[in-house]
Design brief:
Layout (H helix, E strand, L loop, with lengths): L5 E5 L6 H11 L4 E3 L3 E2 L14 E2 L2 H9 L3 E7 L2 E6 H9 L3 E5 L2 H10 L4 E6 L3 H11 L4 H15 L7 E4 L3 H16 L2 H13 L2
Parallel strand pairs: 1-7, 1-8, 2-7, 3-4, 8-9
Antiparallel strand pairs: 3-6, 5-6
Helix pairs in contact: 1-7, 5-6
Bound molecules: guanosine-5'-monophosphate (5GP).
The site of guanosine-5'-monophosphate (5GP) has 13 residues, from strand 5, strand 6 and helix 4.
């Protein structure tokens, strides 16, 4: 069986990366899976341990790093976030496409551990539209919104480190773009070698 592909998705907060990826997963059932990250941040209302994140203490997180359990990790705000390597390795060994939705620091670190990873950066149509979306959520204070916009600008400056840029103007288009990218990666010669062999042998 061919090994699956690892797809890293990053975007400034408010660009809809979670929505885009969850729609892609729905449309490629059994093929694409999302890695569940580990974090030291507090659980938010509505979140479930082991589903949204594995919620751990800072000591536990550090222990996992020391034991070599993390594919990548980064400090974001006051908290640590990281990708446990075990489940990702298993899914890739089973030929699955695995999505990581992570911030840009971690995105950079993935490329070191997994140079073959496909990296997608989702951008908003404009910074003013991003501001409108962040305000529209109605969940953050003015100060928090300005801070998010400031972080968004610094993250946008790292977009060129990614292999593909997807604009999330309309959700449908962004979802289709991501599916196109995944499918084209799966059709690369390297991933089709087994198929070629199979066709020849079943002549
Ligand atoms: P939130 O606290 O809003 O759930 O996530 C904050 C940021 O951390 C988001 O940009 C999210 O994509 C990122 N993040 C979530 N999981 C991981 C991870 O495993 N590694 C890294 N590097 N970033 C992550």
């Amino acid at each position: 069986m061919n090994k699956g592909i690892l797809v890293v998705v990053s975007a400034p907060s408010g660009c809809g990366k979670d929505t885009v990826v969850s729609e892609v997963l729905k449309r490629m059932p059994g093929k694409c899976f999302l890695s569940v990250s580990m974090t030291t941040r507090a659980m938010r209302k509505g979140e479930t341990d082991g589903v949204d994140y594995f919620f751990v203490t800072k000591d536990e997180f550090r222990r996992h790093i020391d034991e070599g359990d993390m594919l990548e990790y980064a400090v974001y705000g006051d908290n640590m976030y990281g990708t446990p390597i075990g489940p990702v390795r298993d899914m890739l060994d089973n030929g699955k496409t695995v999505f990581l939705i992570i911030e840009v620091e971690g995105g950079g670190n993935v490329k070191k551990a997994f140079p073959e990873a496909t990296k997608i950066f989702i951008i908003p149509p404009s910074m003013s539209e991003l501001e409108r979306r962040l305000r529209g959520r109605g969940t953050d204070s003015e100060e928090a919104i300005l801070k998010r916009l400031e972080i968004a600008k610094s993250e946008m400056l790292r977009a060129e480190e990614y292999d593909f840029i997807v604009e999330n103007d309309k959700l449908e288009n962004a979802v289709e773009d991501v599916i196109t990218i995944v499918n084209s990666q799966l059709l690369k010669t390297d991933k089709m070698k087994n198929k070629i062999k199979e066709v020849i042998e079943n002549a």
